[in-house]
Amino acid sequence: MGMTVSYQRILPEQFTHLQNNPELAEAFFHPDLQMTMDIMNQMSQARLQNDSELIQQLSRQALEVLHRDKASVYEGYQDTTKTRLSLEKEWQAIHYLLTGEVEFDNSKAETILMNVVMGGILTEFEGTFYLSPEEVKKLSKNLQEFPEQDSRLRFDERGDREIYSQEDEWDEEIWELLSGAIDSINYFFKTAAINNEAILILHSY
Predict the structure, then answer these.
(1) Is 174 left (phi over 0), alpha (psi -120 to 50) or beta?
(2) For residues 133 and 198, what is the distance between their CA atoms, to the nearest angstrom?
(3) CA pair distance 6, 43, nearest whole angstrom
(4) In the predicted model, what is the mean pLDDT of residues 95-116?
């Protein structure tokens, strides 16, 4: 699977509630696990019965579960009712376009935008980092002011830099994907800032 990064919008009081309730936290971070397992068990039974119509129906249900309340930079972020945005495997490429650095941390990046992908305070939940509403607002302002020509220049000057999941030579199609991803992040942070929400940065392996 490899490493992916995603964002979760959340109110500070909701996050405090999760910290005080381990079972609730498990349900929050893995909301669809039991439902997905139930669907898979039903699909196994349908295959034994050779029920192709039921298999198709269950497949559609499984896809709905996977996409519920979650957006992807591959699709763009337009539905503000979705509180999670996945950067998929493009996280390091996005970090590079925003900062000019490709490190797995923010130790060398001098811009505040280093915190968009690599920021936040590590929480007690594995691979989960917390950006406060104040930090979200500051980052949102900087994202809105970030000139696209800066990321385009870095894109053109990538050279032989090794970037996670970016083995192929960059072309215009990849530029459209990555610049669109930055637009989605910008809108996601803006939405969180308007709602006075914190953002969790989730690292998954």
Answers:
(1) alpha
(2) 4
(3) 29
(4) 81
CB contact at 8 A, 147 and 178: no
C-alpha distances (whole Å) from 150 to each of 18, 59, 155 are: 39, 43, 9
The pLDDT, as a whole number, for residue 66 is 45
Q: 52-67 and 33-48 helices cross at what angle (nearest 10)?
A: 170
All structural domains of the chain, each given as residue ranges with its CATH number in brackets, are 4-30+69-204 (3.40.1760.10), 32-68 (no CATH)
User: pLDDT of 176-203, one tens digit each?
Assistant: 999 999 999 999 999 999 999 999 999 9
Backbone angles phi, psi at 56, to 5 degrees: -65, -40
- Least confident residue range of 61-65, 109-113, 133-137: 61-65
Residues in Cβ contact with 163 at an 8 Å cutoff, skipping those fewer than 6 apart: 92, 93, 96, 102
**pLDDT value of position 22:** 81
Contact (CB, 8 A) for 120 and 143: no
13: CB partners within 8 A, 6+ apart: none
Note the pTM of the prediction, 2 decimals: 0.80
